[in-house]
Amino acid sequence: MAPNTVVIIGGGIAGLCAAIAARRLGVDAHVLESAPRALRGGNARHARNFRIAHETPVWHTPDVYSAAEFLAELEKTGCPDEGFARGLVEDSAGVAEWLMGCGVLLQAPDVGVLPYSRRTAFLLGGGKAMVNALYGAAARLGVSFDYESEAVGLTEVLGGWEAEVTTGAMKKRIFARAVVVASGGPGGDPDWRKQHIGEGVLLRGARSSNGRLMQLLAERGCKTLGDPSSCHMVAVDARGPEDDGGIVTRITAIPHGLVVDRHGRRVELAGASPKKSHYAQWGARIAACDGGVAFLILDAHGFAKTLPAALAPIRADRLDALAGKLGLDGAALAESAPLGAPPFFAFPMRAGLTFVHYGLAADADMRLCREGNTSLFGAGMIVAPNFFTRGYMAGLGLTLSAVTGRRAGEAAARHVLN
Ligand SMILES: Cc1cc2nc3c(=O)[nH]c(=O)nc-3n(C[C@H](O)[C@H](O)[C@H](O)COP(=O)(O)OP(=O)(O)OC[C@H]3O[C@@H](n4cnc5c(N)ncnc54)[C@H](O)[C@@H]3O)c2cc1C
To answer: What pTM did the predictor assign?
Structure first.
């Protein structure tokens, strides 16, 4: 590595923004990404919109979403520091312009089937298109990449950091004067999920965002923030993949039917409105069911209101036949599920993890909080608990990752140039 190289660990949106920002200040930027090229981009591959403050309508986001309103909503998600919250909201106003400057395309609000949103801008072609645009912009600037290269160690050495990197059976060591850790939050590791979240929880995103490097840094003195057992989960189709199910396996039809557990007993959400989807609450509720599994049961009327699903529902003309197909007690189901006209449909459900409210503490430049640290920075979900520690607001993940990625990349470059 050239002496003025910033090494960025993780090629998700945060790492890409950090690499582009660092390179634009004149330093070399090298990205280590543990996933293969086809799966590059981390969880941003699955994302579709990001949250921006705007005081007037913009072509891609209608009406107004003031900084004051954004800040008030962010404060409800347990931001530990008001200054951090303000900075994020202020910087959110420039995210759309910055991404478009990298070749990312946005979707006009009145086109297609996207829902109305004055709080968020939608990506044309979705997250995968954004990821490819950012990789293209970074490559044109001269950022270099190593795929299938996992940083398995990071040690402070004289004048910087030495990363231990594995690529298949090969091992190498890379020195950098400044490092940006953008390896995502924990949760991708199934053992970690089992220990902190619960059994049978599926992962909606990238398995490679496994939190191992975060754990290692915590053991080496980086301060942690948040609660490893607090997370965002939604109901997903239990027949979906163990990881990377993305947004298509989410079960959206819960308001149109009834939920039962594996014993055929009715499962409800305390205080839920029948008209609202309560996506995030259902994830945790299903995780708490026996075996971490539940079933959405719909009659013909309810099914007519559901949106098309990636996996077809299980169907039967009689409720007892449906119970048989699901392995449920028919009598218990009939008692718990007073349904209307046949045919009947069911979706088996599990909880799907989106992210965990746990990460590393940082200062305003995204320098990780560790005694004497000047050259180790964090970006994206690994530093998310500096901004919110409970709940979620749609579009916050991408905005936070883009804002902290840019900040960390620029601060790391300045450190190298000084
Ligand atoms: C299904 C789904 C839908 C979502 N939809 C939205 C949305 O619409 N809007 C929104 O704002 N947010 C959304 N999010 C959240 C958003 O995607 C994330 O907040 C954001 O992508 C996080 O980016 P990141 O770069 O911090 O981390 P990640 O996306 O987790 O990327 C980390 C990268 O680091 C790599 N890596 C990990 N460890 C190492 C290592 N040791 N060495 C090298 N590389 C490593 C990983 O392979 C990965 O590519 C969604 C998330 C999911 C799962």
So the answer is: 0.96
Q: Which residues contact 366 (CB under 8 A, 6 or more apart)?
A: 180, 377, 378, 379, 383, 404, 407, 408, 411
DSSP assignment string, 320-389: HHHHHHHT--HHHHHHH----SSPEEEEEEEEEEEEEEEEE-B-TT-BB--TT-SSEEE-GGGGGGGT-S
Alpha carbon of 14 to ligand 1 centroid (Å): 8
Q: What is the 96 CA–ligand 1 centroid distance (Å)? A: 18
Distance CA 326, CA 318 (A): 13
Helix 396-417, helix 13-24: angle, nearest 10? 30
Pairing verdict, β 144-146 and 28-32: parallel
Asked, for residue 194, whether it belongs to a domain, the answer is: no
Closest CA to 107 of 127, 92, 121, 128: 121
Residues 344 and 401 in one domain: no
Ligand 1 pocket test, pick from 30, 61, 183, 358 with the greatest ligand atom count within 8 Å of Cβ, gives 183
3-state helix, strand and coil shares in percent for the chain, rounded to the nearest 5: 35, 25, 40
With a cut of 50, list the residues of the chain below it in pLDDT: none
Closest CA to 402 of 10, 125, 13: 13
Please report the pLDDT score of residue 3 as a whole number.
Answer: 79
Do residues 51 and 70 lie in contact, with contact meaning Cβ atoms separated by under 8 Å?
yes
Query: What distance in Å separates the CA atoms of residue 169 and residue 229, rounded to the nearest whole number?
Result: 33
Is 227 within a domain?
A: no
Q: How far is the CA of 60 from the centre of ligand 1 (A)?
A: 23
The answer to whether residues 337 and 343 touch, using CB atoms and an 8 Å cutoff, is no
- Which range marks the domain in which residue 324 is found? 234-352
Cis peptide before 343, with omega less than 30 degrees from 0?
yes
pLDDT in tens, 40-55: 999 999 999 999 999 9
